[in-house]
Every structure is written in structure tokens, then in C-alpha cells.
């Protein structure tokens, strides 16, 4: 039989008939009226935004910090708006604004907690700032964090370290930052010569790191910074932007940081550059290199800015790539 809209509708009507019959029967047989059902009190909320998976012996927890909307116009510097809109349409995303999500990682290795990036704290868009609630819902407390590893110094990665009122959020953590990132942003001469529009970013870095400047540990590239976690130079997005390899037993994870601001745009079109990429050409080369490696090694990847839980694999497709999210699993 050929399935048409008409046959589907007819099927629905037939299927509905016995249900109506059952209800009529139930009403006939009920001696006392049923208790009226209570009103659901769900509210417009999802389950807490955390997701766990294993990489060898390391328990990884992705913790979401909400999202921010960016107007699509002007977001990709080297592509026509209509081409960007076509990419959004291909991914069934809106044609006017891009939802950018924020996802940190907590690595639990034998009870030692390492946090990679910290979210927006109380300084981000009203649709962000969910991190602490989600982190606590995942069973953690900020006092338990041993190490905070920072990938680069953009506000959405560092502001969670220190509240607006100056309070340090992770009282017992050692803070580790990329050496080239520190050298760039903490250079007072560079700050004084920076264009007006960039001064705020320099000041934001000083707000977070100024009070702990003596204690911040600066790490180099291609270095095992905590057991199993190796820094990988990934410059372009910022001068010291860093990715990581997490390895434990046979488990491997490529932690891509801000190689992309959304896979639907920059994984599919790796030569496009977002307004946030400080050196577009260098960012493009880094993105191609990392995506190509992930695809050829069939490695699991984690992004900071991808639809939650922000982990999956990379497949080659045409002149670009495709992000294939993991299948949600109830088992860790
Ligand atoms: Zn970012």
C-alpha cells in the first residue's frame, strides 16, 4: 500500500476509535468520580546540564554554563551572509542568530579534580551563568577542585575563576595557564598600545589574575601538565590558545577548546573565520590540522562551544568535516 497523508490520517482515526470506546466503558463502570489529576509543576527547565563519560580511568564530566546568542550578520568575517545562512539552514538552526554554548570539563582521576576552563561566572549573558548550579548538581563542590587549567584568556573561559565582587571561586586550586597567553595579555606595553575596543579584554585578564599573579603556574606547549593531560599549541583564536590530549590506558580524548565557535559553521567550513579569531589565517591552519588529525585517528573530541554535551567524533565530508555527536548513554 502506498502511504499518503490521507492513509496516515485514516489510520489515526481508526486507532483512536478503540481508545474512545475504553473511556466510555470506564466512565460507565466508575461508581465514584476519580480524583482530579494534580497540575504538573515542571517549569521551563531542563535536567541539570552535566554529562559524564570515561576516558580510560579518567571520569570526565562536561558541565554546561548556558549559552549566548550572537547575531549572524558579521559573525563570519570571510563569508557572505547568505552562505552562512545556508550552513545554518543545513543544520536546522535559525537564520538570524547563532546560539553559542559554553561547556567546561571536569576530569576526575582517582579523586583528584582538574577543571578545564571555568565559564562566564557572573559576568556573562543572562542566558549563561548556570555553571555553578550544574557543577554542584553533578556532585562537586568548588573547594574540591585541585587544579584549574585555562585554555586561553577570553572572558567566557576565565571569568568563572573570580566573582564580580572579587571572591576567588576555587579556594584550594592551583591555577595553570598557557605561557604564551600570559606573555601576550599581561604585557602592559601591549595593553597601552591596544585599540580601544580591545582594552576591556586586557583589563578583564588583570581583574581575574592580578590578585594571584605570583601563584599562577604557567605551562609550556607539548607538556604533560597534569597526569595524562598534555598541552597542544593551537594558536590563532588567541596567541596562546591551547588544546589538549587526554590519555588514559587505551582511552583518548582530543580537547579542542575554541577551534570552533559552532561545528555547524566552522567544522563544516573550516576555512571560515569567526570574529573572535584574533589571527584568522593562523586559526584556520590550526583548525584544519586538528580536525584532520581527529578525523584520521577517529579520536573522540570535546569542544568548548558545541551543542551539549559537546563531545563526539569528526568525519571528513567534502572539503570540510562533520561533527557527529556521541549517543547519549545512561551508563558512564
Ligand atoms: Zn570561547
Outline the structure in words.
A hairpin with a 2-residue loop joins strand 8 and strand 9. The two termini are 44 Å apart. Helix content is 29%, strand content 26%. By secondary structure, the protein is an alpha/beta fold. The protein is globular. Bound molecules: zinc ion. Zinc ion (ZN) is lined by residues 154, 156-157, 258, 304-305. Zinc ion binds next to helix 4.
Task: Output the keywords.
332 residues, alpha/beta, seven-stranded mixed β-sheet, 9 helices, 29% helix, binds zinc ion
Write a brief structural summary.
It contains 9 helices and 14 strands.
Overall residue-averaged pLDDT value: 92
From the N-terminal CA to the C-terminal CA, the straight-line distance is 44 Å
Unreliable spans are: 11-28
Number of helices: 9
Q: Which small-molecule species are bound to the chains here?
A: zinc ion
Give the strand line-up of the largest sheet: 1-2-3-4-5-6-7
Task: Estimate percent helicity.
Answer: 25-40%
As a whole number of angstroms, the C-alpha radius of gyration is 24 Å
**Secondary-structure element sequence?**
HEEHEEHEHEHHHEEEEEHHEEE
Name the structural class. alpha/beta
Backbone shape: globular
The major pleated sheet works out as: 7 strands, mixed
